[in-house]
Design a protein that fits this description.
The chain has 437 residues and is an alpha/beta fold. It folds into 4 domains: 108 residues, Rossmann fold; 69 residues; 168 residues, Orthogonal Bundle (Hypothetical protein af1432), CATH 1.10.3210.10; 58 residues, Molybdopterin biosynthesis moea protein, domain 2. The chain is built from 16 helices and 9 strands. It has a 5-stranded parallel sheet with strand order 2-1-3-4-5, with helices on both faces. Strands 6-9 form a two-stranded antiparallel sheet. Strands 7-8 form a two-stranded antiparallel sheet. Helix 7 packs across helix 13, helix 8 packs across helix 13 and helix 12 crosses helix 13. About 1% of the residues have low confidence. Keywords: Coiled coil, Phosphoprotein. It comes from Alkalimarinus sediminis. InterPro entries: CheY-like_superfamily, Cyclic_di-GMP/3'3'-cGAMP_PDE, HD/PDEase_dom, HD_GYP_dom, Sig_transdc_resp-reg_receiver. This is Response regulator. GO terms for molecular function: phosphoric diester hydrolase activity.
Length: 437
């Protein structure tokens, strides 16, 4: 252990070759590195050494990564936790998110630069948390001193109060970064779910954007808007276990036997998420989004206002986008035809109030021209400050960076590295005017 290094990272993996690779990668790091070949060995080390960040493999004998991180979270809640696992471990990743409170999910085999940046960001957030505690203690001490000042020090008290407010603003920014990281995890997890369906899926990102506009227009709370947004991104989670032949067919063409299987997906999606406290409302919206306004939907036949309003919004935007993409009916519909279908079924399939608000944003979500203000660009031509107009994914459909994100030198270099590794050009689109929509 190097006493000059103030931060420590614990790597846990049952494969000695993996640990050796990590040792080589971080041998010149500015933090202390510890290594364990099992969850049990990792827990023993945690009992004797202070650790800021844990990077754990998912698949390990006796105690898997989710179990290990859950114990580490309960005993050392201040540690930041990162999970290394394969793309196929969807249920295990959900388990780790629920039990282990993971901050990041990184696929194996990892990109060295991506892993280094993830560890640097995690340690930075850990430092912010320590600074937050120190600042709060400092603020409390200073407030006690301020109470003893007399009237002639009033101006000094005002100046000091302003400094404290600036400190609070800095803390708000730090917490906002944490919130954005959680949102990013949801978006990344959504792309993992969507990659299961290849081309036979609805554009959940477009659905989420439209649902957010509708929700904000009817003045829903910020928290409810967020859950509706998450529900749109994850609404197909329950389809992960459906056969390919059912997923490949438009919904209207399914026979009775296939339809019976298909109708299980909302309840399955709700079951997967319901144990995650922070996503309880998201789970409820997903579980009821295929209910019909007249009570003829599934899985339980809810009717009218008994259907959660988030689910009513999700159903409208799902069908409006899905009809245009040819996922619901036999052939794709035009924007006007899709909207006419939605209007004609208001009061039967859809909440009339939601349909009315949809009309305000109909023309903003034309599938054929939704990206008319963008251009495709070669990675070599990218420049810092440009803004991405579409999500950028790797060859497996996993999200690399979300739309509206401003480019930096580091991101551009990462794109170049991915192109070299995958031996293909990335599909990168930017806004023509350099600004987000």
């Amino acid at each position: 252990m190097d006493l000059e290094k103030s931060e420590s990272v614990l790597f846990v993996d049952d494969e000695p070759a993996i640990l050796s690779s990590l040792k080589r990668l971080f041998r010149k790091s500015n933090f202390n590195c510890y290594f364990a070949e099992s969850g049990e060995e990792g827990l023993t080390l945690l009992e004797t050494q202070p650790v800021d960040l844990i990077v754990s493999d998912m698949r390990m004998p006796k105690m898997n990564g989710a179990e290990f991180l859950a114990i580490a979270r309960s005993k050392w809640p201040d540690t930041v936790r990162i999970l290394l696992t394969g793309h196929s471990d969807i249920s295990a990743t959900i388990d780790a998110l629920n039990k282990g409170g993971i901050y990041r999910y990184i696929s194996k085999p990892w990109n060295d630069q991506e892993l280094q940046e993830a560890i640097d960001q995690s340690l930075r957030l850990r430092r912010l948390e320590r600074e937050r505690v120190e600042l709060l203690e400092l603020t409390q001490t200073q407030n006690e001193k301020l109470q003893s000042f007399n009237a002639e020090l009033e101006e000094r008290v005002k100046a000091r109060t302003q400094e404290i407010q600036q400190t609070a603003d800095m803390l708000d920014l730090a917490y906002e970064e944490l919130k954005q990281s959680y949102d990013m995890f949801i978006r990344v997890f959504s792309t993992i779910v969507s990659s299961r369906f290849n081309t036979h899926r609805i554009n959940s990102s477009m659905m989420a954007d439209l649902a957010k506009k509708i929700s904000e227009k009817v003045n829903l709370s910020e928290d409810e808007v967020t859950h509706i947004y998450y529900a749109c991104l994850l609404h197909e989670l329950g389809k992960l276990g459906l056969p390919d032949n059912i997923l490949a067919a438009p919904e209207v063409t399914l026979d009775n036997e296939s339809l019976e299987i298909y109708r299980q997906y909302p309840a399955l999606g709700e079951m997967i998420l319901m144990s995650i406290d922070k996503l309880a409302l998201t789970a409820k919206i997903i579980g009821t989004h295929m209910e019909c306004y007249d009570g003829t939907g599934f899985p339980t036949g809810l009717k009218g206002s008994a259907i959660p309003r988030g689910a009513r919004i999700l159903r409208v935007v799902r069908d409006f986008v899905g009809l245009q993409m040819g996922v619901i009916d036999r052939d794709p519909m035009s924007n006007d035809a899709a909207y006419s279908y939605i209007k004609s079924n208001a009061g039967r399939l859809y909440d009339p109030g939601v349909v009315k608000v949809l009309g305000l944003f109909q023309k903003e979500f034309v599938i054929s021209s939704v990206n008319a203000d963008e251009m495709k660009i070669d990675v070599m031509a990218l420049k810092p400050g440009m803004r991405i107009s579409r999500d950028v994914t790797n060859v497996n459909g996993i999200l690399l960076i979300s739309k509206d994100f401003p480019l930096t030198e580091t991101i551009i270099e990462r794109f170049m590295s991915i192109e070299r590794l995958e031996h293909r050009k990335l599909n990168v689109y930017i806004y023509l005017d350099g600004e987000t929509k």
